[in-house]
Amino acid sequence: MKPLNLLEYIYAIEDYHFDLAYPREIRELSDRHWTPVEVARKAAEFLVREPGTRVLDIGCGPGKFCIVGALATEGRFTGVEQRPHLCAAARSVIDQAQIPNAAIIHGNLTAMDFSHFDAFYLFNPFQENLETNAKIDLTVKLSSELYDQYTEHVARQLALAPLRTRVATYCGACEEVPMGYECIDSSSGCDLKFWEKTKHHPVRPSAQGPTSTNRKWRFMVGAIEPAA
Ligand SMILES: C[S@@+](CC[C@H](N)C(=O)[O-])C[C@H]1O[C@@H](n2cnc3c(N)ncnc32)[C@H](O)[C@@H]1O
Description:
The protein is an alpha/beta fold. It has a single domain (37-220), classed as Rossmann fold (3-Layer(aba) Sandwich), CATH 3.40.50.150. Helices cover 31% and strands 17% of the residues. The chain is built from nine helices and seven strands, in the order αααααβαβαββαβββα. The protein has a seven-stranded mixed β-sheet with strand order 3-2-1-4-5-7-6, covered by helices on one side. The chain is globular, with a radius of gyration of 17 Å. The structure holds S-adenosylmethionine (SAM). S-adenosylmethionine binds at residues 33-35, 57, 59-61, 64-65, 80-83, 86, 108-109, 123-126, 136, 150.
């Protein structure tokens, strides 16, 4: 059988073929940590309302969602990723395949300006801070405090976004999605959720941190009026 080349891999529908675009050690993490091709397509089609819609993948790993979304729609996809070797893997595919509407930023999501984006994608990016048996690797700091910090940061940024902002979440408790966003549809056995901001809610002016019994940023952010 003739071997597939990179372009054939990234246009493949089956995850097994798509993942051949990556080195083996990254491929092996796909089942658990990278978005399936079909889910990425559906999420991208929901998020991109018009040509040029700017989509941010919050914790993009090796860029699978950004690559699939950029090939399937006319949106502009940016991924932010804290692990440099995953950024390198993503950029290698994007550069070799010359995908003009996908880009990867190496860094922490807390340094990103969310106002530069129209729509957001999250595949449970902070879960490995809580689960001891679901870590990608040990190259970054992981802790329940970081889970709270990142989740609150995203919830606050999304709470400040304009009405009609769209978010797609895949798996997880969706604690990053604050009040004011309505889950308007779901897919892939409800694991993929489509959200749209339909109401403004006041955002508390300063972080106070969740209590150990209440991690629900979705309900905490915006639930309390700012001090006069
Ligand atoms: C479950 S993977 C999802 C990858 C990709 N979004 C996808 O759907 O295929 C979550 C990724 O988020 C990254 N991540 C977690 N916290 C981050 C942070 N604070 N800043 C940047 N990246 C982060 C992790 O390194 C990991 O690669």
